[in-house]
Amino acid sequence: MSESQLWDDVDDYFISHLAPEDEVLTAALRDSEAAGLPQIAVSAAEGKLLHLLATIQGATRVLEIGTLGGYSTIWLARALPADGRLVTLEYSPRHAEVATRNIARAGLDKVVEVRVGAALESLAELADENPAPFDLVFVDADKSNNPHYVEWALNLTRPGSLIIIDNVVRSGRVADPSDTSPDVQGTRTAIELIGSHARLSGTAIQTVGRKGYDGFALARVLD
Prior knowledge:
- The protein is of the alpha/beta class.
- The chain contains 8 helices and 7 strands; from the N terminus they run αααβαβαβαβαβαββ.
- α2 runs antiparallel to α5 and α3 packs parallel to α4.
């Protein structure tokens, strides 16, 4: 058995017992694939982790940067109370259209707002609205802009809020000093920003599984 097959088998075991998908989640992935969206959504295990973190956090307001087909959005929104709010930002109108349908089928369209456009522009517009602080921010968009997303997350949260950044390992490329591609440089800068910022305390975890070799960073906003 190959190492990657072993990772898949272990993921399948954990998911079957701890994060089984229902028809709504399965349909979100199926319809996203049928619409030609890239198959880069979080795994079911990662989705359950996001759900648990939002629940533990007691989150009532969540900001997601990078919607894709709405799979992770559904996991996060299900952790919110009926009067909660999740704002999710998506660059592609086509992706946003698919996500909006998936979110509506999940019965979460009253909780979730999908905003379409370049995330940095949407974040500036959101900040101009002077919204109540977000309790959790999930960043899963273009990696070159990760440091900018962390800065915006700091502006839009409160002490005690969580910031989660997905895909920070880049199959190990993050630790390769010869790799100067924009996604790796953006990820490194975000990690180093978390490590040096006076208002952030964070860590990063490597993961293996159906999504290959990657990982995520988790930071808490300090006083």
